[in-house]
């Protein structure tokens, strides 16, 4: 496992390739939630999501020989864009496997960033098979969207920046999909704070991480019927041990709560966030007693929204 010194060094190495995103507050949302919230706005990150951090960290960790053959990943959207843009910045090819059901706005962005898209059926087996085929044909290095240690470390730098800008937070909350963001956040909280807790949030309709913490083993979902499309993936064997050891709890929220939280952020803060990003704020609104009077950091994970398909 990475040390605090190595984590700090990694953050320094990826900093030229990423934005140090702002932290916003809202008196109205604080009043609504009955607590003090600091929103780390990764929707303002390059390509519109925190995943730029992990993709950059993973590519920089490769040797020059490895980079020359390019990288391949499978993703429903944000990591696809992150790998494409990171690869473009470093002058290497990016092969992207995307499910046919991925939002068109995310497919268009990948093409804009120079990623070479291969579409597949919208299930994990098809995604993995397509990525493996590209690996064999090109020699490209596979980058997992969330179950790669360098990706996890990169994602954690968002929380590191939040802690540096606003020390004294009682807890940091992130949405949970594949587990990379919350695992990286938990490491940053462990390295740079003394009493802060890491908490996850996910939909009731896709609550594999909640059930995994309960059972102590990686659980899966039989359905994927949630508006939070960026969370439709599972934990992995690299990030789950970190989550199990360092995450305090995971709060589940209903679909209408996600939509309401998303709408509040759009209306009150005047910023664009995707449904997956709103899950963490929805958790605070649902569990007001837990957060009342605390200083709460929330990672707004991204803002890549299909404007033709808004839920309100």
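Sequence proposed for the structure above (312 residues):
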């Amino acid at each position: 496992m990475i040390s605090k010194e190595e984590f700090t060094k990694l953050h320094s190495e990826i900093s030229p390739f990423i934005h140090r995103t702002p932290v916003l507050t809202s008196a109205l949302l604080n009043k609504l939630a009955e607590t003090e919230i600091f929103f780390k706005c990764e929707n303002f990150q390059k390509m519109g999501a925190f995943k730029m951090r992990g993709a950059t960290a993973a590519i920089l960790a490769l040797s020059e020989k490895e980079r020359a053959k390019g990288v391949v990943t499978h993703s429903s959207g944000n990591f696809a864009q992150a790998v494409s843009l990171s690869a473009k910045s470093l002058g290497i090819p990016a092969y992207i496997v995307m499910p046919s059901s991925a939002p068109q706005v995310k497919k268009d962005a990948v093409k804009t960033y120079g990623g070479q898209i291969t579409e597949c059926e919208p299930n994990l087996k098809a995604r993995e098979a397509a990525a493996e085929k590209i690996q064999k044909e090109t020699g490209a290095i596979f980058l997992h969207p969330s179950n790669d240690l360098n990706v996890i470390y990169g994602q954690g730098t968002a929380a590191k920046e939040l802690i540096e800008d606003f020390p004294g937070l009682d807890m940091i909350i992130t949405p949970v999909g594949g587990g990379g963001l919350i695992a990286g956040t938990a490491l940053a909280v462990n390295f740079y704070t003394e009493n802060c807790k890491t908490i996850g949030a996910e939909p009731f309709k896709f609550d594999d991480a909640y059930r995994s913490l309960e059972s102590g083993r990686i659980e899966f979902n039989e359905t994927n019927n949630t508006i939070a499309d960026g969370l439709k993936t599972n934990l992995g064997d690299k990030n789950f041990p970190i989550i199990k050891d360092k995450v305090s709890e995971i709060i589940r929220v209903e679909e209408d709560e996600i939509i309401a939280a998303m709408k509040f952020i759009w209306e009150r803060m005047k910023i664009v966030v995707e449904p997956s990003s709103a899950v963490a704020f929805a958790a605070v609104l649902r569990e007001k007693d837990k957060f009342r009077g605390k200083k709460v950091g929330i990672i707004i994970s991204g803002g890549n929204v299909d404007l033709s398909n808004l839920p309100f």
